[in-house]
Design brief:
By secondary structure, this protein is mainly β. The chain contains 3 helices and 11 strands, in the order αββββββαβββββα. It has one domain. The longest helix has 12 residues. The model has no long low-confidence stretch (mean pLDDT 95).
């Protein structure tokens, strides 16, 4: 069986002017509550379906706090290949209710949608979900210490993170906000 490429990859001036980092919003969902996603002919996610009364949960932090990415994994022996999806959330919980959410996240399996600083949305952990593999928090030793709760989520997926686009940026952002429960 041959695994063949079917197109090329170009470059534009706009692609060279992209800004790194992510926005302050992260949307999380329980993997077992997502029923499917719908993509258009170009491969963009245009709809995310959940079981009744389920949807997205918004986690808000400071701008440039969260991060997301992937790493290609090549197994040897065996030869199978896949992508590790990695998301780091930096959060600032304020009360026992928010602490309980973080405790649930420790044992949950979730998908994550991040907005980058180019007004693009990416879906991590679409098929298999992400599990928390690390979590730290410290008061620090001085006033300028990083006191955020830093959670690392990781999962193995057959594809790169999916891009979400419904017509334009505002429509996509508004759509995701309508899915928040």
């Amino acid at each position: 069986m041959a695994c063949l490429i079917t197109d090329g990859v170009g470059i534009t001036c706009d692609a060279l002017r992209r800004v790194g980092g992510v926005n302050k919003r992260a949307y999380l969902f329980n993997s077992e509550e997502k029923t499917d996603i719908v993509t258009d002919a170009n491969g963009y996610v245009i709809d995310i379906n959940f079981e009744s009364y389920d949807g997205l949960y918004k986690f808000t932090s400071r701008k440039q706090a969260h991060s997301g990415g992937y790493t290609a994994q090549v197994q040897s022996p065996g030869g199978n290949k896949f992508f590790n999806h990695d998301v780091i959330l930096k959060l600032f919980p304020e009360d026992p209710t928010e602490d309980a959410v973080l405790e649930s996240l420790l044992v949950g399996c979730v998908g994550v949608i991040l907005e980058d600083n180019n007004q693009q949305f990416f879906l991590y952990g679409n098929q298999n979900g992400l599990d928390q593999i690390d979590g730290t928090q410290n008061t620090g030793q001085e006033q300028a210490s990083d006191i955020a709760y830093s959670l690392t989520l990781q999962g193995q997926e057959p594809e790169m993170p999916k891009r979400i686009l419904i017509t334009d940026y505002e429509t996509t952002k508004n759509y995701l906000d309508t899915l928040v429960v």
